[in-house]
Amino acid sequence: MLVHIKEIVGKAQKGHYAVGAFNIHNLESVLGVAQAAVRAGSPAIIQVSEGAIKYMGIKPITHIVSTVAKNVAAGVPIALHLDHGNSFDAVFECIKAGFSSVHIDASSLPLDENIALTKSVVEIARSKNVWVQGEVGAIMGGHGQVSGRLEHIPVAKVSEVIRFVEETRVDTIAAAVGTAHGVFDNEDIRMDLLKEIKQKTKIPFVLHGGSGVDAQKIKESIKHGVNIINIGTEIKLAFSETLKKTCAENPNETDPRNLLRPTIKAVEEAVYAQMRLFGSCGRYGEGDVET
Ligand code: G3H
Ligand code: ZN
Question: Where Zn(2+) 2 is bound, by residue (predicted)?
Answer without folding.
Answer: 105, 135
